[in-house]
Each structure stands twice: as structure tokens, then as C-alpha cells.
Specification:
The chain has 299 residues and is α+β, with helices and mostly antiparallel strands. The protein folds into two domains: 41-174; 184-297, no CATH class. 45% of the residues lie in helices and 14% in strands. It contains eleven helices and eight strands. It has helices at residues 2-33, 55-70, 75-89, 116-119, 122-134, 144-152, 164-174, 195-206, 231-236, 241-254, 256-259; strands spanning 41-46, 49-54, 182-185, 211-214, 225-229, 261-266, 269-272, 292-297. The strands form two sheets. It has a five-stranded antiparallel β-sheet. It has a three-stranded antiparallel β-sheet with strand order 2-1-3. α2 (55-70) packs antiparallel against α10. The radius of gyration is 24 Å and the shape is globular. The protein starts with a helix and ends with a strand. Residues 1-35 have low confidence and may be disordered.
């Protein structure tokens, strides 16, 4: 009997070894043949620290920061706006919250912020936040948490401070003060980009201060190219076309998933989907003039 049990044990062990080997072979096959999925993570680097957001969060951060810029507000306003949205909604446009609060900033219809439908529109809710912020005396000199609390009247008035470092990094990139520091790791685009939707997104986020047109000279086989001119943004944000160009370029990277962008070119560098970050443009590529940006959409 003992010998029989021993033989059965050996047989079971052998079967287990075969099963493990088979599973290992499958795992090896998948690892070797399947393309690695992108992280869908975006980072903005400031003072040597890379501050991460998801692609969805970055998309909303792009709108919040550029709204401050085209309103002629300083980068400090964008920092406060981002810190507030990070605390209130984790930078996600949610349709639920404490009591009747909804949206990026968790604004409450019962407190006069607007209807639920209005507040769920990120453009509307962001504008309402900045309307409140600019009414706070000396908000640019206040600590972030005090300025945010003056607008929000939160039950947790000190909570905004924890998001200041991340918000400063993202605001600095998206307002063009830090250049070539915002990167998103994204999967390849599935299908063909919607050019009209991309043009509408430019208008939505940049408030008409940036003009956009399709580059008729570009080869459609490599993707539709949108030429953006930030002259209007430059006029309202301090008169520096190079900074405006970088603000728009890094906005385009943060919104690249929604835009179906595969490359962004600005005077000073190029970002490509699937790449490691900003790099010098190829020698044979045209260099955009300061204050202009080229966005290549998926072909």
C-alpha cells in the first residue's frame, strides 16, 4: 500500500511539474508576443520630482490651468485651482459627493453654484471657481489652503495644502513656465482621429485665444496636422510667445488621449506618443515659430 501511495505521489508531482511548465510556457508566450500596455500615467517634473496624474486627471488639469491663463490670471491661480480640484474630486468630474455637491470642484446647487447640469460641465464649473477666487482679496499672497477655503467653504479647511507640491508642478508646466517637463505614457490610438472633435477641444479649453487650422500641406497618410497660433493667449498672459507656445504644447500632451494626438511640436522640442518624453525635433522637421504649436493627429 505504501509503495502504491508513493507511486501515486510521484505521479501527482510529475503532473504538477508538467502543469507548471505549461503555465510558464503560456506566460512566456504572452510576455514575449503581447505588446506592453502603457501606464496611462502622466507626469510633470519640478525641481527633480516627477508628480504623477492619471491620463483622465491630466485631461482635466489641462482645462483648469489653461482657463486661468486665458483669463489673464497668474500661475498661482492655476496652482490653487488644481489643488482645490484634487482635494474635492481627485480631478475627476464626478456626479456625486457630499450632500448635493457634484463636479470637479464639488460645487452645490443648493448654495447657488448653478444647476447640476451646469456644474457637471467642466468649463462652467472651472469658470465659477475662478470667479470666486478673483473675488478673494490678495489671493495670490495667501497660502494655497486659505485661498481655496475662501472660495469653497469646506468642512476640511486645511486639506488643500497636501496637494500644493503636485499642483505647483502641473501649473508650472501648463502655464509654460517649466518647459519640456510634462509627459504622458499612452497606448497607440485605435482608429482614426476625429479632426472636428480635436478642433472643438482647442476652442473649449483655450477660450478662443488660440486659433487652430488644418495644415493643408501635411501628408494625410502620416496624420492630420493642426497648426495652433497662440498669439491671443500671449496677449492676455504677459506677452511672451515662447511661454505661450509651451503652455499650449504641454496642454496638448496632457489632453493627448482625448485629442488622439500622436505628436506635438513646439519651438524647442517634440513629444511623441510612445516615446520617453520631450526630445529635439528631427533635423528635417520644420521648426514652429515661437508661439505656435503643431499637433499631429492619428492617421
Amino acid at each position: 500500500m505504501a509503495h502504491r501511495l508513493s507511486r501515486l505521489g510521484c505521479a501527482a508531482l510529475a503532473a504538477l511539474v508538467v502543469l507548471v511548465a505549461a503555465v510558464g510556457g503560456v506566460v512566456w508566450f504572452l510576455d514575449d508576443r503581447s505588446p506592453a500596455l502603457a501606464s496611462r500615467q502622466c507626469t510633470a517634473t519640478l525641481d527633480g520630482t516627477a508628480w504623477a496624474l492619471s491620463a483622465d486627471q491630466a485631461d482635466n488639469a489641462a482645462l483648469i490651468a489653461l482657463t486661468a491663463t486665458y483669463r489673464g490670471l497668474p500661475a498661482r491661480a492655476a496652482t490653487i485651482g488644481l489643488a482645490t480640484a484634487l482635494q474635492e474630486s481627485r480631478l475627476i468630474n464626478i456626479d456625486y459627493g457630499d450632500r448635493d455637491s457634484v463636479g470637479l470642484f464639488q460645487q452645490r446647487p443648493s448654495q447657488g453654484w448653478g444647476t447640476v447640469e451646469q456644474i457637471m460641465d467642466p468649463v462652467y464649473s472651472t469658470g465659477k471657481f475662478y470667479d470666486g477666487l478673483v473675488g478673494v482679496p490678495g489671493y495670490t499672497e495667501l497660502p494655497v489652503t486659505e485661498a481655496a477655503q475662501a472660495v469653497q467653504r469646506s468642512g476640511f479647511p486645511d486639506a488643500y495644502a497636501q496637494h500644493e507640491g503636485r499642483s505647483r508642478a502641473w501649473a508650472s508646466a501648463l502655464t509654460g513656465w517649466s518647459t519640456g517637463v510634462l509627459h504622458c505614457d499612452l497606448d497607440p490610438v485605435e482608429g482614426t482621429a476625429d479632426t472636428d472633435a480635436a478642433l472643438a477641444r482647442v476652442q473649449r479649453d483655450l477660450g478662443g485665444t488660440v486659433s487652430a487650422a488644418v495644415d493643408a500641406s501635411a501628408d494625410p497618410a502620416t496624420g492630420v496636422v493642426l497648426q495652433l497660433d497662440a498669439a491671443g493667449l500671449t496677449a492676455v498672459s504677459g506677452g511672451d510667445p515662447a511661454r505661450s507656445g509651451w503652455a499650449v504644447a504641454q496642454w496638448a500632451v496632457a489632453a493627448a488621449e482625448a485629442l488622439d494626438a500622436v505628436a506635438v511640436d513646439v519651438a524647442g522640442g517634440r513629444w511623441e506618443r510612445g516615446g520617453a518624453g520631450w526630445a529635439p525635433a528631427p533635423a528635417d522637421a520644420p521648426t514652429p515659430a515661437p508661439g505656435t504649436v503643431a499637433i499631429t493627429l492619428a492617421p
